Structures are given as structure tokens and as C-alpha cells.
Automatic annotation (TrEMBL):
Protein name stated in the entry: Uncharacterized protein SCO1/SenC/PrrC, involved in biogenesis of respiratory and photosynthetic systems
Annotated GO MF terms: metal ion binding
Disulfide feature: 80-84
NADP among keywords: no
Amino-acid positions noted as binding Cu cation in the UniProt annotation, renumbered to this chain: 80, 84, 170
Family to which this protein belongs: Belongs to the SCO1/2 family.
Domain Thioredoxin span(s) in chain numbering: 42-204
PROSITE patterns cross-referenced by the UniProt entry: THIOREDOXIN_2
Taxonomy of the source species: Bacteria, Pseudomonadati, Pseudomonadota, Gammaproteobacteria, Lysobacterales
InterPro entries: SCO1/SenC, Thioredoxin-like_sf, Thioredoxin_domain
Keywords assigned: Copper, Disulfide bond, Metal-binding
CDD domains for the chain: SCO
One Pfam family hit: SCO1-SenC
Length: 204
């Protein structure tokens, strides 16, 4: 009997542990919070909040104005010497690889600064110029309010932590917003060719 009770208890613990692991890993599909976030976005795409931005030209842009187009979004700050440099270079490459849908307005590239106090329109314009980015199809902008910035960071799952040296530590990805204004896909940074191929499959 003691052996039987031990076996039953062990079986119950294994079953419970497996259930917990299944829930914690999203049915064994996700072993990191980032992977879980990407799966959640694909299952239930969140709407992008209505936020007012100021662009590199000083113009005001309501994110709802981009409805009807696909939008590739990244989050940067112009003083960054790591991820943001890589992302800027990738967006410049995407201007070439996706030139046709950018030119006819089916697609927009949008870089959003999470350092709006420092990143004035002049700094935003200089950031894009650093990569020889052209006017058509690539907008660099900053939120006009702290609340708007926080809404965007929450929706897009961007974590920003001051590094105590005047900069920030942050995660990086290229995020896809569909013409209905929903975040539908999160793509890895570092492979603009794969991003371009994914978008060619989605664009009409």
C-alpha cells in the first residue's frame, strides 16, 4: 500500500507538473516570454492605439491616418550606437527592396523614438539622413505625449531601461501592422531580406 500511494502521488505530481508547463509555455510552443508574446499577437492581434506623433519634418501624424496600408514599425532613439544603428540600416535596405509598394503607398516604414525629449524633429531627420534614407515611405517620428509613448510601448511590447550612462537598454524587432491598424506579426531584426520576403507575400 505505501508503494501504491507513492506511485499514485508521483503520477499526480508528474501530471500536475506537465499541466503547469503546458500553460506556462503556451502549450509547449513558447519557452520564452518573447516567443509567447509573438504567438499571442498572431492569435489575437491588438489594435494600435490612437497616438499623435511629430515627424522628422515637424508635421503632426495621427496613427489612424496610416490605416489602409501595411506599416513596418521599429522603436529607436537617435543616440543609440547598437540596435538602432542596425535597424536604421535595415530600413534603408527595405526602402530599396520594397521600393514599389513604398512608392505607391501600400506600405510605410515607421521609426518611433522612445526618447522624445532629446529626439527633436531635427534629430529625427538627421537619424534618417545618416542612413541615406529617402523621403518616400520612411517616417521617423516621436510621440507628442508621455501617455501616448507608454501606450505604444505597451502595445508593441517594447521594454526600455535607462542604462545610467545617458542611454537605454531595449529590445528590438520589426513589427508588422496590417491595414486595419492591428499589430499582427513580430519579425526578427537583422534579416531585412526575410522581412522583405514576408511583406511581398502579404502585399496585394
Amino acid at each position: 500500500m505505501p508503494i501504491l500511494r507513492t506511485l499514485l502521488a508521483s503520477t499526480l505530481l508528474l501530471a500536475l507538473g506537465g499541466a503547469v508547463l503546458t500553460v506556462a509555455t503556451d502549450g509547449f510552443q513558447a519557452f520564452t516570454s518573447e516567443t509567447a508574446r509573438r504567438l499571442a499577437v498572431q492569435r489575437d492581434p491588438p489594435p494600435v492605439p490612437t497616438v499623435l506623433l511629430e515627424t522628422q519634418s515637424g508635421a503632426r501624424l495621427d496613427l489612424t491616418e496610416l490605416r489602409g496600408r501595411w506599416v513596418l514599425v521599429d522603436f529607436v532613439y537617435t543616440r543609440c550606437l547598437t540596435w538602432c544603428l542596425a535597424l536604421g540600416g535595415e530600413f534603408a535596405q527595405l526602402q530599396d527592396q520594397l521600393a514599389a509598394p513604398l512608392a505607391d503607398g501600400r506600405l510605410v516604414l515607421l521609426s518611433i523614438s522612445f526618447d522624445p525629449v532629446h529626439d527633436t524633429p531635427a534629430e529625427l531627420a538627421a537619424y534618417r539622413q545618416r542612413f541615406r534614407g529617402r523621403d518616400h515611405g520612411w517616417i521617423v517620428a516621436r510621440p507628442t505625449s508621455t501617455d501616448g509613448l507608454q501606450q505604444l510601448l505597451r502595445t508593441f511590447g517594447v521594454t526600455v531601461v535607462p542604462d545610467r550612462m545617458g542611454g537605454y537598454v531595449h529590445n528590438a524587432a520589426i513589427q508588422v501592422v496590417d491595414p486595419q491598424g492591428r499589430l499582427v506579426l513580430i519579425l526578427d531584426a537583422g534579416n531585412p531580406q526575410a522581412v522583405a520576403q514576408t511583406m511581398r507575400g502579404k502585399l496585394p
